[in-house]
Fold this protein.
Amino acid sequence: MTHFRKTILAAAVVALVPSVSHAQLEEVLVTATKREASAQDLPFSINAQSEADIRRTGATNLEELSRNVAGLAIQNLGPGQSQVSIRGVSAGQVVRDQPGVKEQVGVYLDETVISLSLFTPDLDLYDLNRVETLRGPQGTLFGSGSVGGTIRFITNQPDFEEFSGSVEANLNTIEDGDVGGHFKGMLNIPMNDRAALRIVGYGTEYGGWVDALREDGSFKEDVNSGGRYGGRIALALQPTDNLTITPRIVFQSIETDGFNREEVYNLFANPFTTTRPPVRLGEREQYLRLDEAFEDDTMIADLVVNWSLDNVDVTYVGSYVDREILASRDASALTGSVSVDLGFPADAVLIPSNLRDSTDLQQTTHELRLASNADGPFNWVVGGFFSDVEREYVQRLPTPGYDAVTDAVLGAGTADAVSNGYGPDSPYNSDLPYDIEQMAVFGEVTFDITERLNMTLGGRFYDFEEERRFTTGGLFSNGDDQVDSTSSDGFNPRVLVSYDVSDEMTVNAQASQGFRLGGVNDPLNVPLCDDGDLETFGAFQAYDDETLWNYELGFKSEFDKVRFNAAMFYTDIEDLQVTLDAGSCSSRISFNVPEAHTLGVEWELTAYPMELLMLTFSGSLLEAEFDSTVTDSSGNVLGGVEDGNRLASVPEFQMAASATYTFPVNAFGSNEMYLTAMFQHVGERYTQPSDQVAGAGNFVSGLPFGGATGAEVTAVDLELDAYEQVNLRAGIVWDTFETVFYVDNVTDENAQLSFDRERGGRARLAYRNNQPRTIGVTLRKFF
């Protein structure tokens, strides 16, 4: 469709809200096909949240933005550790000690790959031009890790024309929690006709809301507070009219003092103890013997070169990503549960223990592509891609005094004999370095068969190699030292057909394939495993590539002041990589499920029923199920992977709606005032496939400690409840200034976002929860 009107507004007004005189649909230009086009013109399902959308909703991260994107689901596993799924393609929960598992949704910052399974950077959304969500596999243009889809953060580029800037300040308070806020700014500096500089900086203080019970009976309040600080510096050089060179540096640091974990059972704090005070933890409470922390330092350096020739655009993208991540957890209950099994005395069971998971990543990528730039009926893009990822994952379990107890109970010299060269008083240590190389050649061609009918054909050849070495030491380990390697190659095709039914409506269909690379599981922690778990999970080692075929029929339409897009889709998944908790082993394993599928419909509506009112409504209805049953050696269904059972972490139904009403008044000398109300519903979900097995929510620790026998049952509903969230905003807009008052989570909903179990639930059980009611004010200034 080519009839869509471009909304040409003053930059400051575009970034705010729909106004009385501009009540029309905004056209968003995207580069999802690596060529610029209107989102409405692309022959597949895509959502593009513009800068105006981001500000209207007040979103500051991807999880908040996802509320308005049909089919996009975020599973919150703690700060900087959320997992993304699109259209129900999900393997379930992936945790910190599964570094070999690859992502199912590719995430990009402009042209740079930033996705990392579990640890995709939680980037600030300030001064973004848009966020593109490409639904369905994008293996042709974006490669591995985009089996479910791709998300692209597109930043505003340096402007050669005029000096401009913006600042934003926020202050908020959380119900029964802490105070937070942020300050952000942007400067665009034209240096001359051939150079421009764009600088973005931000700092955010997160208020906490989870309280921690300590051993002395006191509470430490708001233990999950933290902050995010960072910025971007981009320099655009234009030595000639058809050549642009843009080097850039991005840096960000996230630090938190704890995690959004609401515990329902802890070895040291539960209602079953008698020689210790019995404890029943309340809403938004946890138990800690040690303070916790999360740190994520990210640096991205990239270079984009665009060279426009007569009929061809040549683009080179080179990037380097350096990340250092530390998740420091109170593992006292985990270590203590093993100590009970080993027959250690009670005072040894109570020794504080700190599990430190660290990741050090260096990733280098190069991409060179050529794209046609003519207006004719035939267009194409071809390119080559190379990446090298060096990643080292390290675990340490410092537990002062543990070696002395080990030697006293198990015999002198035991701790040193099992150390495998690691230092003292750390009963588990591991080093796991990876080296992953990928090479690919890709291309797509689009041609007009008639004036209304066009077709796109695409494909990607890929080759992948991975090498890793796994070394462990300590009482809880096997003393491993093994080297593994895997490799894979293949071809991913895509076919799309688009037909303009009229000037107002286009119908499109596609068949496309995506893939996710396989890998190797870490050996189980055999000293921790009971006989049943060792027999069940001990045979799993390597797992194969996951492949997916997506079949889609959709339409896009725009009638005057109403835009309605919808799609029906079916995905056929082979060798789905499912992750399961290996119970008492304190390990997680991945394995392939031969067949699974997703089937669903999604829709997005934007309308102006009257000049002063804008409405949006989006949602998805989804069936995501296994089509195979996996059994153990005894013929028992393994971990809920049974034909007809649901895939984990995605709701069957989710929807979001919003209404923005603009008042044409001049109160306080303003141009206008507006009110926005947003409503989100997320249906029931499971954190992992085994949660839907009958009786899975009845946890028995088997650990006699503190007067508890270990036979007591902690009953938990593992079907995460559906929840609703309501957000309200009221704004006043002047020419270059805006004030916004807001209330998020108006009803103070305590939503269950995921379920966390330590050592199969023997040590600790908890839900991850959302931020309580938050009241705040945001001030924005443009110049």
